Amino acid sequence: MKFNKVLILSFLLCFPTWLVFATNNKTQPQYNRSQGFYKDVFMDSGLALTSRRTLPACRALGLSMEYFVSASTSKKAKNPANEVDTLLQKMIMVGNPLDYNGVLLYPDGAPRFRMIYVNGGISNSHGYSLKKAGRNIMKTFVANGGGYVGSCAGAYFASQYVLDKDSLIEKSMYLGIWPGCVRQTGLKKAYNTISIEKNSKLLSYGFPNGIMKVDSVRHNGGCYAETKVKWPKGTEILARLSMPKTDPRHDLDGKPIIWAYKASPFSGRIIQCGSHPESVASEERLDLVTSMFRYAMDGNPTPQIKGELLPGQTREMNRHTKDKVPAYTRIGDKQYHHFTLCVPKKCEKLEITLGDYKGWRDFDLFLFASNTGFAFSDTAQYRNVRFGVAKKITIDNPKEGVYYISVFCDTTVNTTESKYGTMYTGRIDVLNGVPYSIKAEITVGQ
Fold first, then answer.
1. CB count in 10 Å sphere of residue 7
2. Within this chain, do residues 383 and 274 fall inside the same structural domain, yes or no?
3. What per-residue confidence (pLDDT) applies to 422?
4. Residue 206 has what pLDDT?
5. Based on the structure, what is the number of domains in the chain?
6. Which of the listed residues 297, 313, 341 is the one where a domain comes to its end?
7. How far apart, in whole angstroms, are the C-alpha atoms of residue 45 and residue 71?
8. d(Cα 253, Cα 414) in Å, to the nearest integer?
9. 3-class secondary structure, 291
10. Beta-ladder partners of 259
11. Helices (H), 18-105
C-alpha cells in the first residue's frame, strides 16, 4: 500500500494529538524524582530497534516513562514498518508544527526527560532513519543534561568509532556522544556472566551485599569498549565480561561490557551496555539495570540559571525555539526557569511580578522565591500558586544577599494510549512554550 505524506501529515495535525507512549505508574513510589522534568524516562523503540513497550526497571523504580514504538523493519514481519512509522518518528523525535522541539527537548533546548533509553536492534539503520536532524536532537539532549542508557545497538549508537578487525571506522550515523571505540564480541544468542568492578558505582545502587557477578545475561551481537583505541579520558569501566578458561571465547574475558562517561559538569551521564539485561523482571539482572538507570539519572546536572534579574527592568521570556536564544525562550510543560536577584542592605520591600501576554493567559505558571537555594515548589520560602499567569510575590524586609527566583509551568498535556503508544491530547499548545515577563522591584530605606 502506498501512502500520501501530505494526507498523513494533514490528518495528524488536524487531529489534536501526536504519538508517544506514556506510563505514569501513579500507584508506585517515585524514586528520587528530580524536579524540573516533564517525566523520567523516554524509551526509543523506533525504526530498526526492538519494538519494546515495557521496561521492568522503570516499574521497579516507580519511574514515569514514555516511548515511541515502530513496527518491525524486517521484511519477514507480518506488518512491517511503512511510511507512517517513518513520518511519526520524525514528528516525535525531530519536531512538528505542534511541537517544534521534538519530544525530548523543551523550547529552550533543556532536556524534557531525565533520561533516554535506546533499545537493541540495528544501530546503523536506526541512525540513518533518524537522519542528521534527529541525531542532533539526541546530542543536544545529552549535552544539556539528559542521561543516556543504551543496550547492545544502543551502546553502539552512542559511540563514535567501531573497530572492525584492524580497521578503525568513524560512524557518521552514530551519535558520538561517547567519543570512543567499540568492537563486536561475535557472540550470538549467548548467556554470559558479567563481573562488576570492585569500585564500580553500580554497587552503590541496590545490589545485595557481596554480589559481584550477574549470571545468565543475554548477549546477541553486542559490543565491548575497546580500551586500546580512542579511549576517552573520564570513561569509567563499570563491569566486564567473565568468560571461563574452558569457553571457546575466553579471549573476551575481562572486556569492558558496561561503561559510563560524562563529558562535562553540564552534560548528562552516558551508560553503555553491550549485553541485554533489560527485559528481565527479577533478581540480579533487574538490579543491574536499575543501578544503571539510577546512576545515569544521578548524573543530571544542577539547574541552569537563566540570568540575573536587574531591579526595575522587565525581562521578556517570549522567544521561540527557532530563535536559539535559550536565556529568553518560553517555558515548557512541568519546566522550571531559574533566575537570581541581588538584594542590597536596608531593603524594605521586594516585589516580584509575573506578567502575561495577550492570548496566552489560559495557562498556569507558578512563582517561587528563596534565599537559601534553588526555589522549587517544596523548598521555596515564598510562593504564589494561583491559577493563571499573572501574579506577584511581595517580601517585606528581605534579608541581604542572593535570592533565587523561579517560574514553573504547571500546565501540561494529557495522554491516551494508541497503536504506536500514547497520543498527546488536551493542552498540546503548551509544547511550543508559554511566554511571560518577570520583573523585580526593590525599595531601599534611607
1. 9
2. no
3. 72
4. 74
5. 2
6. 297
7. 9
8. 49
9. helix
10. 237, 272
11. 56-61, 83-93
